[in-house]
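seq as requested:
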Amino acid sequence: MATPTTAAQTGTQVPDHQPVFPPFDTQHFSSQLIWLALVFGALYYLMSRIALPRVAGILETREAKIAGDLASAEAARKAAEDARESHDRMIADARARAQATAQDAHQRLAAESEARRKRLTDELDARLAASEKQIGEMRAAAMGNVDAVARDAASAIVTQLTGRAPSAQAIADAVAAASKTA
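struct tokens:
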């Protein structure tokens, strides 16, 4: 048969009063306040003497690095601006030199072309004068031959028509009169 077990045997007795959660127990409240003040003071001391100076040093270092980077960026921007202005001046100078060189070349070529044109014109004028002189000589020679041919032809025609040979003086006068009217 089983024996009934009692609460004392099992160790599960219910105490007469309700237990309180230890942090809320008023009996220990004063000691907890003392420990709270000691721990807070120790943490405050550690934070103010160790942690916060390190954080402040890190922030100062970071701020100095940012300021240095900004200063170097400003210096680089100014150097880039100076380089751009120098480059613009160099390009403007190069353009001016190129235009001057092109203008000089154009003037030189125009002068050479004008000299060549004048030389060719003079040469052609000389050839033309020589040709005109030659034509004049040929015309004079031809005219001299025309007179002789005209006299011979007139003499032959008169002889053919009349059967008698005309005098050389009469033919010469007739050819001279015909030349003047033509």
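DSSP finds three helices and no strands in the chain.
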